[in-house]
Amino acid sequence: MGLTRSGMTLPRWEHPVTSGNSGSNVRKSYNSEAIATWPSVFDNPDTAKEYQPGADWQNLHRFDPSARWTWGEEHQLIRKIDLWIMVFICFMFAALELDRSNLQQALTDNVLNDLGTNTNDLQPRKYRFCLSFLCAELPSQRVSTWVGPDRWIPTQMVLWSAVAMGQYGLQGKNTFLVCRALIGILQGGFIPDVILYPSYFYKHQELSLRLGFFWTVMNIADIIARASWLLDYCTCVAFKDDQTGAGYFCSSLKGLITLLMGLSAYVLMPHGPCQTANWSRDKSGWFSPRETVMANRVIRDDPNTTGTNERWLPCGTESTDLTSETPME
């Protein structure tokens, strides 16, 4: 017996794995035709009114509480999201670690002597970088919710890569300090922004598993950056006795890689699951004609997202409402 809504009967959610006894063994088979639509507040007309999406919700044109789909369809969509969204995000996450490891790379190329400093001054500069990084966290997230992570994340990458490439002409420890502080400010908030973006496409239990990919990729990128001895050797040979120039060149090269990724992110990162159609991606969209599944699977998993939009203009009324709210008794 299915759920009843507006005079029609809707099929119930089914587990994708079916069990059957065969002697003492239990055989399990995957049923791709089982209904994957989870029960939700939208199945109840009374609660559905409370969580009805607002007019500013970007996926409203695909919202359909009566939509049903199978596990086979959902898993096919998840594989597409992994391919088109998650893989590219992991590459961007790796670019963050590559640029952050530039300082360790520079230590092996005699950069500190050229800047008139030594390792005793290095640790305070690391603290200032971390402080700049932390201070930029909240403002960066504010900007991300204002313009959208699909625009702010590429902008961050382009800006900090430009500063990273500018390290090629550093002279003096003060300019080095300013450069590291700028990179920290521009990279601040990047991690939560990157985590926010895939939440538009994945359900919470799917996203929690894929967050492990980020930290794995970061560690792999750190290993690659530290083990890039071949690049260091070739660069030192090219620059001969100018080890400082070799160190700056490696930093600029990694910055150039990040710059190219940031520019490509402007056209490869869609605004949302129902806005993937683009001249640079696919004119028909990545998930067409099942964008309805993309829009409804996430909102059924977390109905509270119906009250939010990926972009909004900052104003002072929100903070006023929070401070003037009547305390709970």
TrEMBL record:
GO terms for molecular function: transmembrane transporter activity. Keywords: Membrane, Transmembrane, Transmembrane helix, Transport. It is a multi-pass membrane protein. It comes from the Eukaryota. Residues 317-329 have a biased composition (Polar residues). The keyword Membrane applies. Residues 1-25, 300-329 are annotated as: Disordered. Transmembrane segments: none annotated. GO terms for cellular component: membrane. It is found in: Membrane. This is Uncharacterized protein. The lineage of its organism: Eukaryota, Fungi, Dikarya, Ascomycota, Pezizomycotina.
